């Protein structure tokens, strides 16, 4: 399990930029090099920027245009596809302040107190049209013609990239053919549109409001498309610097990929599921020069599009090849993806 020498890609902050086109179109040596670069990034920070990822900039730009158009609809229209109550059916529209991240809070009093500070965002969730457990919920076509068709198509763009990434990780770990992609054969994935409206930056600086509180993702892998505004931060991976947060700026034409909790467990801790959050854009995190100026300073509205992947529910999550040996024994008992999800949900809602 010794680390092999891998060419060092360009870094943005602490996160490397990897040219994924060399995996998509390269020879076997180039594919293995890219796999090693992503493996190294996942070991060190749990995050990597991918350029040349195969989803064209025009497609991503169109996705953001549809997102803007959807969130510009009157609330009464967006509420024609309301997110069902609770956390078991992640589809449809959630309004401002409806959802509150409360990870790492376990007592009812602590969760209740955290929910007093609203997450100032709204979201729309959709998934695989073939998922019988979580059918999609759509605003009627007459209110936003073409929205549903594009989102269903963009879902498959992102799904294809996830499956290619799983093949990349299979090479990194020498997982025998057919690799990890078949463990996600049902593509039980979630496409999310997020809008963070403009608000006084002082509310974020003083924690009177939040955009998204600190959390890690739930599944195996997450893709994130960001607009140019910024505000995403990750927790420093050094345990001695747990309270230090690092800026994750948008990179033109890149998708940001991160490891989720289920993949961290599956990799026996080899890959990190790193805590992250969204706050004020970097240029608006410092104090303003005077009281009146501070009160008038506004954070720009922010849009982002995350895509969450998880394994099929009957997939057995046991330490992957290359992630354990006699010197690095398995840290977890085998569990199905379904059992793991239920375990996490019980911890979250007890």
Query: Strands of the biggest beta sheet: in what spatial order?
Result: 1-2-3-12-9-15-6-5-4
Overall mean pLDDT score?
A: 87
Q: Which second-level CATH architecture applies? A: Sandwich
What is the terminal-to-terminal distance?
Answer: 38 Å
Overall helicity: 25-40%
Radius of gyration: 20 Å
CATH class: Mainly Beta
Low-confidence stretches: 104-114, 288-292
Number of strands: 17
**How many strands, which pairing sense, and closed or not: the largest β-sheet?**
9 strands, mixed
Return the CATH topology.
Jelly Rolls
Helical segment tally? Answer: 10
Strand content: 15-25%
In short:
The chain has one domain: Sandwich (Jelly Rolls). It is 30% helix and 20% strand.
Protein described:
Belongs to the iron/ascorbate-dependent oxidoreductase family. It comes from Lepidopterella palustris CBS 459.81. Keywords: Iron, Metal-binding, Oxidoreductase. One of its GO terms (biological process) is small molecule biosynthetic process. This is Clavaminate synthase-like protein. The structure is a single chain. The chain is of the alpha+beta class and 350 residues long. 30% of the residues lie in helices and 20% in strands. It has helices at 21-24, 28-44, 57-71, 75-78, 108-114, 147-173, 201-205, 261-266, 291-296, 337-349; strands at 10-12, 15-19, 47-51, 92-94, 122-127, 190-196, 199-200, 212-215, 221-226, 232-235, 245-247, 255-259, 276-278, 298-299, 302-309, 316-317, 335-336. Residues 104-114 and 288-292 have low confidence and may be disordered. Helix 2 (28-44) packs across helix 6 (147-173) and helix 3 (57-71) crosses helix 6. The strands form 4 sheets. A 9-stranded mixed sheet has the order 1-2-3-12-9-15-6-5-4. A 4-stranded antiparallel sheet has the order 8-13-10-11, with no helix packed on it. Strand 1 (10-12) and strand 2 (15-19) form a beta hairpin. The chain is built from 10 helices and 17 strands. The protein has a single domain (10-349), classed as Jelly Rolls (Sandwich).
